[in-house]
Write a structure and sequence with these properties.
mainly alpha; single chain; 25 helices
C-alpha cells in the first residue's frame, strides 16, 4: 500500500477506536477520554507503530476552533452572563497568578533556566482544557458548576497564549507589564469584534440558505471564518470562535428552521465525538516520540535531568498547580455564596418593585428605594418639563397618545429589567455554591491538548526545549488520568450540589401548566395536521419566551425543544407529501401519529426514558402532563 492508503487506513482505525471507546467507557464507568489516552500510550510502544508528532498548529488552528464553537453554541447564554464575573476571574486572574508562581518554582528548581522561560512554561500549564472539561460534565455536578468550568476553559486559552508570547519575547529582549496588558487587551478586543461579525454573518447566511445541508456546512465553516482572520490580525482565534459560537447560540432557536436545528444537532455531535477523541488519542500516541527526544537530548547533555527528575518535577508542579487553584477557587466560591445571600435579602424589595411596576404606580415604585417619594416625583416632573421644552425647540409636536406610548415603553423596559433581576436572584438562591462545589471545581481543572500544543509552539532555540515539552506533556497526562479518574469518587465522597430532581420535576410541571394555556384556534379550511403544526409552533414560541425569562433551568426545556423540533419537521414533511393529494383528510390522522413517533424517537436521546412520553405530550394540542391542574403546582418558579 502507498502512503495515502496507509493514512486512510490509520484514520479509519482511529475513528473506529473512538467510536467503540465512547460506547464501552460508560459501561465500564470510565470516562472515554481516559481510555483513549491509555490506548494511545499503549499503541505508541508497539514496534510497528511509528513515532507520531502532530504539528501544534493543527491542534490550535484546526481542531480546537470547532470544538470551542460547539461548546459555546450549546452553553446557556443567560447562565454564562450570570457567571461572567466568576468566569472572567478564573480565566484571567487565576491564569496569570498560576503562571507567575509556577515560573518562580521552575526557576528555583532549574536556576540555569532564565525566569522568562520558566514563566513561559507556567503559562503553558495554567489553562484548563475545554475538551478535558467534558469529563467533569458527566459525573453529575450541578449546571452552575458546569457553566463556570466550561466558561473558564473556553476563555483562559487567550490569557495563557498571550502570556506565553510575552514571556518568549521577554526572554529575547525586554519585558514591559504595560506592553503585556496592551497585547492582551488587543488580542481579546480583535477576537470579540471579528468573532461577533463572523457569528452574525453565519446566522444571516444560514437563515437565508433555506436548506439544512447547506446550513450545516456553513455552521462548520463559521469557527474558522472567525479564528483564521483573528490569528492573522494578531488576536486570539480561539476566543473569536467562542464569541461566534455565543452569537450563534443566542439566535439559533429563533432564526433557524426545525430541520436546520436537528441537522446541526446531529452533525455537531458527530464532529465533537471524533475531534475530542482524536485529541486524546493523539496525546497518548505522542508519548514515544517525546521520550525518545528527551533521551537523545540527555545523552548530549541538552536536557535538564534524567527522566526520573523530569517526572518528579512534573508531579510536584501538578500538586502546586492544584494548591494554587484551591487557594483561589475556594475563597471565590465563598464570595459567590455571600453574594447569593445578599441577593436573597433583596428579593422582597424587588418583588414589591415588580408589583408596583405592574400597577404602573410611579409613587410606589420610587418609595421602594426612597423613603420620601416627594423629591423623586418632583424630579420626574422637572425632567418631563425639560423634555417638553426640548421637543418644542426641535419643533416636535407629540400627541397625548405618543406621550402615553413613550411612557408605556419606559415601563416595559423597567419591568423587563426587574424581572431579569428577579430571575437572577432566583437562579443564585436555587443553586448556591459551597465549599463542596469549590472542591469539585478544583479537581475538575484538568489540563489537556491545549497545554501540549502550546508547549510545542516554543521556539526551537528555547533552552532545554524537549525537557520543557515533556514536563508539559506529563503534567497534562497525569492531570487527565489522576484528576479525571478520581473525579467521580470525589463527587460521591464530597457530595456537592447536584441537580435537584424534585425541583426539576416541579419546574417541568410548571412549564407544562404554562404551555397548556397556549390555545391555537382552528382556521376554516385547514387540515388537522396543519392545525397541529401551528399549535406546535405556538407552544415552542411560548417555551422560548419562558426560557428568556430565566426562571426555568435549561435542563427542563432542552429536551422539550428537541421534541418540538422533531415533531414540527415530521408534520411539515407530511404536509408536503399531502399537498395536492386526493386523500389529504384521510392521511391527516396517520401523518400526525407518525410525526409524534418521530418526535418521541428524537426526544429519547435527550431525555430520561421515564419523561419522554410525558414531555412530548406537551407538543400535542389539548394534551398536557398537567391536564388535571388548573394552577401551577406548589413550588413553581417565578414567571
Amino acid at each position: 500500500m502507498d502512503s495515502v492508503e496507509i493514512a486512510i487506513l490509520v484514520g479509519v482505525i482511529a475513528v473506529l477506536i473512538i467510536a467503540v471507546t465512547s460506547r464501552v467507557g460508560p459501561k465500564w464507568n470510565v470516562a472515554a477520554p481516559l481510555l483513549l489516552v491509555l490506548i494511545g500510550i499503549g499503541l505508541s510502544f508497539l514496534p510497528f507503530v511509528p513515532e507520531i508528532e502532530v504539528e501544534p498548529e493543527i491542534i490550535l488552528a484546526v481542531v480546537l476552533p470547532p470544538l470551542l464553537f460547539s461548546s459555546a453554541v450549546n452553553m446557556p447564554a443567560m447562565n454564562f452572563r450570570r457567571e461572567f464575573n466568576a468566569i472572567g476571574s478564573l480565566a484571567v486572574a487565576l491564569v496569570v497568578v498560576s503562571a507567575v508562581l509556577l515560573g518562580f518554582f521552575f526557576h528555583w528548581i532549574f536556576p540555569e533556566l532564565a525566569l522568562p522561560w520558566c514563566i513561559a512554561l507556567g503559562a503553558i500549564l495554567s489553562p484548563t482544557d475545554a475538551v478535558a472539561v467534558s469529563i467533569a460534565k458527566n459525573v453529575g455536578i450541578s449546571s452552575r458548576v458546569t457553566t463556570i468550568l466550561e466558561g473558564e476553559s473556553l476563555l483562559n486559552d487567550a490569557t495563557a497564549l498571550v502570556l506565553l508570547r510575552t514571556a518568549v519575547a521577554a526572554a529575547a529582549a525586554s519585558f514591559s507589564v504595560w506592553h503585556a496588558m496592551g497585547q492582551f487587551a488587543y488580542a481579546v478586543a480583535v477576537a470579540c469584534v471579528i468573532g461577533f461579525i463572523a457569528g452574525k454573518l453565519g446566522v444571516l447566511a444560514r437563515a437565508r440558505s433555506g436548506d439544512a445541508t447547506v446550513s450545516s456546512v456553513i455552521s462548520f465553516v463559521v469557527p474558522f471564518v472567525a479564528s483564521v482572520p483573528t490569528d492573522l490580525a494578531g488576536g486570539s482565534g480561539l476566543v473569536a470562535a467562542v464569541v461566534a459560537g455565543i452569537i450563534t447560540g443566542r439566535k439559533k432557536d429563533r432564526v433557524f428552521s426545525a430541520d436546520q436545528r436537528l441537522s446541526d444537532r446531529t452533525m455537531w455531535r458527530a464532529v465533537t465525538l471524533v475531534l475530542e477523541g482524536a485529541v486524546f488519542l493523539i496525546m497518548g500516541l505522542e508519548v514515544k516520540k517525546l521520550l525518545h527526544e528527551h533521551t537523545e537530548m540527555a545523552e548530549g547533555s541538552g536536557a535538564m535531568g534524567s527522566l526520573g527528575v523530569i517526572v518528579l518535577v512534573a508531579v510536584v508542579a501538578l500538586v502546586l498547580m492544584t494548591g494554587i487553584r484551591a487557594a483561589y477557587v475556594l475563597p471565590l466560591t465563598a464570595a459567590l455564596g455571600r453574594k447569593a445571600a445578599r441577593m436573597q435579602a433583596m428579593q422582597p424589595r424587588m418583588e414589591a418593585m415588580e408589583s408596583a411596576i405592574s400597577d404602573r404606580d410611579m409613587r410606589r415604585t420610587h418609595e421602594i428605594f426612597i423613603k420620601d417619594a416627594g423629591p423623586a416625583v418632583r424630579l420626574k416632573k422637572k425632567l418631563k418639563k425639560k423634555a417638553h421644552a426640548l421637543d418644542e425647540r426641535r419643533g416636535i409636536q407629540r400627541s397625548e397618545e405618543q406621550v402615553a406610548a413613550r411612557m408605556e415603553s419606559g415601563w416595559q423596559r423597567l419591568e423587563n429589567r426587574t424581572r431579569r433581576a428577579l430571575s437572577d436572584i432566583d437562579y443564585l438562591v436555587r443553586q448556591p455554591l459551597t465549599w463542596r462545589d469549590g472542591t469539585v471545581m478544583v479537581a475538575a481543572g484538568m489540563r489537556g491538548a491545549v497545554t501540549l500544543a502550546a508547549a510545542q509552539t516554543l521556539p526551537h532555540e528555547t533552552p532545554f526545549r524537549s525537557s520543557l515539552i515533556l514536563i508539559a506533556f506529563i503534567v497534562a497526562v497525569l492531570s487527565l488520568l489522576v484528576q479525571g479518574g478520581l473525579l467521580a469518587p470525589l463527587v460521591r465522597a464530597v457530595k456537592p450540589s447536584v441537580p435537584d430532581e424534585a425541583e426539576l420535576a416541579r419546574q417541568r410541571e410548571a412549564v407544562s401548566a404554562r404551555l397548556a394555556d397556549v390555545i391555537v384556534e382552528e382556521v376554516e379550511g385547514e387540515s388537522a395536521v396543519e392545525h397541529k403544526l401551528r399549535s406546535i409552533v405556538a407552544r415552542r414560541d411560548a417555551l422560548l419566551e419562558l426560557n428568556e425569562e430565566g426562571f426555568y433551568q435549561p435542563e427542563c426545556t432542552a429536551g422539550l425543544l428537541a421534541s418540538f423540533d422533531a415533531s414540527e419537521l415530521g408534520l411539515r414533511l407530511k404536509i408536503e407529501q399531502m399537498a395536492g393529494g386526493p386523500d389529504a383528510d384521510a392521511l391527516s390522522i396517520a401523518s400526525a401519529e407518525e410525526a409524534e413517533l418521530e418526535a418521541m424517537a428524537s426526544a429519547a436521546d435527550a431525555l430520561p426514558a421515564r419523561r419522554v412520553v410525558e414531555r412530548f405530550s406537551l407538543a400535542t394540542p389539548g394534551v398536557s402532563g398537567t391536564d388535571a391542574q388548573d394552577e401551577a403546582p406548589e413550588g413553581e418558579p417565578r414567571g
